[in-house]
Write a structure and sequence with these properties.
Helices cover 46% and strands 13% of the residues. By secondary structure, the chain is α/β, with parallel strands linked by helices. The chain folds into three domains: 132 residues, Phosphohistidine domain (Glucose Oxidase, domain 1); 110 residues, Enzyme I, Chain A, domain 2; 279 residues, TIM Barrel (Alpha-Beta Barrel). The protein binds phosphoenolpyruvate and magnesium ion (MG). Phosphoenolpyruvate (PEP) binds next to strand 10 and helix 17.
Length: 593
């Protein structure tokens, strides 16, 4: 934080939700919301040729930009993910898009913006009305491309998110999974968004990249402009516009203090996660992208407890092939061996969509065609992934985990498909781990309540508290308007977790947590006391959680959990957690605000 705030303008504090920890002060780059820039206007006949030229130039610039983004995505993620941009270039060349816009400029005597908006609208309407799902989906591509051209017409090309030149804090209404995955990490120092929660995909990616983020700010895009200076604290969920020198100094000191606590914790890397009375807990890492695997060891994790494999599918125009998936899974498994990687089968739907699947929009996506429901309905796609996972299991310690299980039937059906894949591989003489372990995520109340039944079919449970909280409390996890009701320590959630742990242990299987609660040090003693065997979290969160485990005895943690289970309210439970933390690990309290 080198620069100082503008003293002539008063500072203004906005409060949102901490998406990813860290403090940063920098210049804003505001991403335009849905509305593309540029006013519509009627023109004189003498302006027609000039408008056509403007349009052609903007289309050419757009093509070049798309080429550049395609290159970057190819390098950052994968070849397959970059194919989306070929479709975008095809739209640019399509005569119904290009020629029709020029015709409209000439015929209707309107500027390029108005002509383009008219064509896009008409095109979108026609496609949206078609039976064919694939063609219906193309309406979104056309809108996307048109928005880029409109930005170029307005001379905004140098501000496009994918063309950043300077370090900045990105401010946006929201960032799509593909935008987040392709962010230029060396230039994006932080981000702040109108929507979102600590468990939305944007926050999950920010934590994966170690970029401070504040989400769920409501209207930050209307409060700041490109070029403004803001400070964000992703731990407290605070954004300060025009911070005063006093605030900058305060946060600079806070950042130094947190850094020094974190550096102290770095020494724990090779220490075990063991309580003061000798109880050991497994700490693993969550990853979304293959390249994050290097962070896993650095953080001192004992493998990957959740590999969110859907990021291989997101932003890709084509489904990842068996070979592409094998390369990703094998890479992770062999780098981690002999430590395990739990590959979660694809969890698309909710707030994560893959354009390659062309799934129609749903009114309640979190309650809809998501995760295992999609996989069981699309066995060919599911089998491609299962075969790739099985093949990777010959190169390390791989486990499989099914997401969003709501009844035991789904587990049985998924396992039958898995057995099918094993049979195929045996016939093809392709090696895999014959003893590969299969587990499920417990993240729907019906699964927690029937955990005793489900336990008979699997080798482990991992509780997905991000979803378990939303489904138990009927609170959309990405809706900032109900964020105050999203309470992980609600007694109903704790009871379901306890039930799941007891059911797992009664059957002799281990039970972990891989939702955001696992990486929140304030929750560590409570989870430990509830009897958890494993915690899986963003790598950066691991040292503080390890310190929390090492600061306490299992007896103290159990006493805390017993007290918490007797509490009437989420706030009451939190107070117990804070009280024990303040006693045994006060320095970590500084890290959680
Ligand atoms: C969860 O629901 O807690 C979880 C870990 O999965 P995701 O956040 O990917 O839904
Ligand atoms: Mg989940």
């Amino acid at each position: 934080m080198k620069q100082k705030g503008a003293e002539d303008q008063p500072e203004h504090i906005l409060r949102g939700v901490g998406g990813s920890p860290g403090i940063v002060f920098a210049t804003v780059y505001r991403v335009h919301a849905e509305d593309a820039p540029g006013l519509d206007r009627v023109i004189n006949p003498g302006e027609i040729s000039g408008e056509i030229e403007r349009f052609k130039t903007a289309v050419n610039e757009t093509r070049l930009q798309i080429d550049q983004i395609q290159q970057k995505v190819r390098q950052a993620i994968s070849q397959g993910d970059a194919i989306i941009f070929d479709v975008h270039k095809m739209v640019l060349d399509d005569s119904a898009f290009f020629d029709e816009t020029i015709r409209k400029i000439e015929r209707d005597r309107v500027n390029a913006e108005k002509a383009l908006r008219g064509v896009t609208l008409r095109y979108g309407e026609v496609l949206s009305a078609l039976e064919d799902e694939y063609l219906r989906e193309r309406a979104a591509d056309i809108k996307d491309v048109a928005r880029r051209v409109l930005r170029n017409l307005a001379g905004e090309k140098t501000h496009a998110l994918d063309e950043l030149h300077e370090k900045c804090i990105v401010v946006a209404a929201d960032l799509s999974p593909s935008e987040t995955a392709s962010l230029q990490r060396d230039l994006v120092l932080g981000f702040a968004t109108d929507v979102g929660s600590s468990t939305s995909h944007t926050a999950i990616m920010a934590r994966a990249f170690g970029i401070p983020a504040v989400v769920g700010l409501g209207d930050v895009t209307h409060r700041v402009e490109t070029g403004d200076q803001i400070l964000i604290d992703g731990t407290e969920g605070v954004v300060i516009l025009n911070p005063s020198v006093a605030s900058l100094n305060k946060y600079e000191a806070l950042a130094r203090q947190r850094d020094s606590i974190q550096s102290g914790l770095a020494g724990l890397r090779n220490q075990p996660a063991i309580t003061r009375d000798g109880h050991r807990v497994v700490l693993s890492a969550n990853i979304e992208l293959v390249e994050e695997v290097s962070e896993v060891r650095k953080a001192g994790a004992e493998g990957v407890g959740l590999f969110r494999s859907e990021y291989l599918y997101i932003a890709s125009r084509t489904l990842p092939t068996e070979e592409e998936q094998l390369a990703a899974y094998q890479g992770v498994a062999s780098q981690l061996a002999p430590d395990p990687v739990i590959i979660r089968t694809v969890d698309l739907g909710g707030d994560k969509f893959a354009s390659s699947l062309n799934l129609p929009p749903e009114i309640n996506p979190f309650l809809g065609f998501r995760a295992i429901r999609f996989c069981l309905a699309q066995p060919t796609i599911f089998k491609t992934q299962l075969r790739a996972i099985l093949r990777a299991s010959a190169h390390g310690k791989v486990r499989i985990m099914y997401p969003m299980i709501s009844n035991v039937g789904e587990v049985i059906r998924a396992n039958l498909i898995l057995e099918d894949c094993k049979g195929e591989l045996r016939r093809e003489a392709i090696p895999f781990d014959e003893h590969i372990e299969v587990g499920v995520m417990i993240e729907i109340p019906s699964a927690a309540i029937t955990a005793d039944i489900i336990a008979k079919q699997v080798s482990f449970f991992s509780m997905g508290t991000n979803d378990l909280v939303q489904y138990t409390l009927a609170v959309d996890r990405v809706n900032d308007r109900v964020a105050h009701l999203y309470e992980p320590t609600h007694p109903a959630v704790l009871r379901l977790m306890k039930m799941t742990i007891e059911a797992g242990h009664a059957r002799g299987i281990w039970v972990g947590v891989c939702g955001q609660m696992a990486g929140d040090p304030l929750m560590t003693h409570l989870l430990l006391g509830l009897g958890i065997d494993e915690l899986s979290m963003a790598p950066a969160a691991l040292p503080a959680v390890k310190e929390m485990i090492r600061s306490v005895t299992l007896v103290q943690a159990k006493r805390l959990a017993e007290g918490a289970l007797r509490e009437d309210t989420a706030a009451g439970v939190l107070a117990h957690c804070r009280e024990l933390m303040a006693r045994v690990a006060p320095e970590i309290l500084e890290l959680v605000k």
